[in-house]
Amino acid sequence: MRKAVVILWPSFLFAGLGTVLFFAFIDPVDMIFVGPLELGQRAAYTFGFFFFWALAAGSSWLSCVLAQGTNDAAR
């Protein structure tokens, strides 16, 4: 449980920051998607937030895995 919190909490914070910075410069209405995908602004903000959260969580998870491998090799 502790490892999940260590991974998800910082990634949540960075997802919020990434979403704010990304959508400060790009309006979801102006985004062009491949195919007929109609999203409202709230849905685009939501999907963007979860995309950034997954990206940051994957990065944090990979860092934990690599750091754990380093500790095992040093023993």
Q: Which stretches are poorly predicted, pLDDT < 50 over at least 5 residues? A: none
Shape: elongated
Strands, total number:
0
Class by SSE composition: mainly alpha
Fraction of residues in H or I helices: over 70%
Strand content: under 5%
Beginning-to-end CA distance, first to last residue:
24 Å
List the total number of helices.
Answer: 2
Main sheet record:
none
Order of helices and strands: HH
Radius of gyration using CA atoms only: 16 Å
Averaged pLDDT: 82
Question: What features would you describe in this structure?
Answer:
This protein is an all-alpha fold and 75 residues long. It contains two helices and no strands. The longest helix is centred in the C-terminal third of the chain and has 34 residues, at 41-74. The radius of gyration is 16 Å and the shape is elongated. The model has no long low-confidence stretch (mean pLDDT 82).
What would a concise description of this structure say?
With 75 residues, the protein is mainly alpha-helical.
